[in-house]
Amino acid sequence: MKRLFLLLFAGFILFSLSGCAVIGIEDGQGGVKADFGKIADEPIGTGWHWFCPVFSWIERWDVKTLEIKETAQVPSSEGLISTLDVSILYSVPKENIVKVRKTIGKDYVPTVLEPYIREAIRNIASGYEVKALYSDEGRNKIGKKMIEFLKDKVEPRGIIIQDVLLRDVRLPQAFSDSIQQKLKTEQEALQKQFELQKAEKDAEIAVAKAKGVAESNKIIGGSITENYLRYLWTEGLQSSEKQIVYVPTEANLPIMEAGRSVSSKRENQ
Fold first, then answer.
1. In terms of Cα–Cα distance, which of 103, 101, 91 is closest to 60?
2. For strand 56-62 and strand 160-170, is the pairing parallel, antiparallel, or unpaired?
3. In the chain, which stretches have pLDDT less than 70?
4. Which of 90, 123, 159, 219 is most buried by its number of CB atoms within 10 A?
5. CA distances (Å), 25 to each of 61, 66, 160, in order?
6. How far apart are CA 112 and CA 104, in angstroms?
7. How far is Cα 97 from Cα 106, in angstroms, rounded to an integer?
8. Which domains does the chain have, with CATH numbers?
9. CA–CA separation, 161 vs 71, rounded Å?
C-alpha cells in the first residue's frame, strides 16, 4: 500500500514537472484538440482529458442553444426609420465544432454570424412598409424570411439557425401618432354607433308602449256599450242607499243625479 502511494506521488510530481494539464468537458459541451498545431478530425466528448500545453491544446465549445441579440435601425419602403430588437437562436452541434474551428475559427460569432444577421435585418425588413412591422402577420413573414436567409448562409458552414424572434419594434413617432389617432377615431365611432343603437332601441320601446296603450283604449272603448251602461245603472240602484233620479237625454245617458237617503224618506213617511 505504501509502495502504491509512493508511485502515485511520484507520478504526480513527474506530471507536474512535465507541464501537463487537465481539462474537463461537461454535458452540453464539446472539445477541439490539436497536437503539434494539427487539429484532430474528431471532437472530444465529456470527461477529463490530459494534455501537454507545450505540444497540444484543448478548447471547450458550447453546443447548447445560444442567443444573439441585435438592435438595428431599419428604413421602411416609405423611407421611415424604425428600430428592431431581434433575437437569433442558434447552435453549433458537437459533430460540427471541428469543421467550424478549422474553417472559421473560435470567434465565428463576430466573424460570420453577426454580419449575416445585420445583412438579413437590413435587406429583408427594409423591403416592407411600416405597418407590416406593426402587425403580427407582417413580423411573422419577416422572421421566416430572415430564417431562410440565415440558414442558406451559415448552415453550410456548420452553424444551425433555430429561430428568429422580433422582440420589439419601435416605430417612427409620426407613424405612432397616426396609429393613436386612428385608434381614437375608431373608439369614437364605436361609441356613436352604440349611442345610435341605444336610441333606436329606446324608440322601439316607446312605440311598443304607445301601441299597447292604444290597443288597451281600443279594447276598453269597444266594451262600453249602451247595454253595459244600463247594467251598471241597475247595479247602482241596487247597491246605493240614496234615491237616484236619472234624467235621460237624447243619447239616453244620465247627465244628473240627485236624491236623498232611504232612511230619511222613511222617517218623513
1. 101
2. unpaired
3. 1-19, 172-184, 220-269
4. 159
5. 9, 18, 21
6. 8
7. 9
8. 15-62 (no CATH), 66-174 (3.30.479.30), 230-268 (no CATH)
9. 18
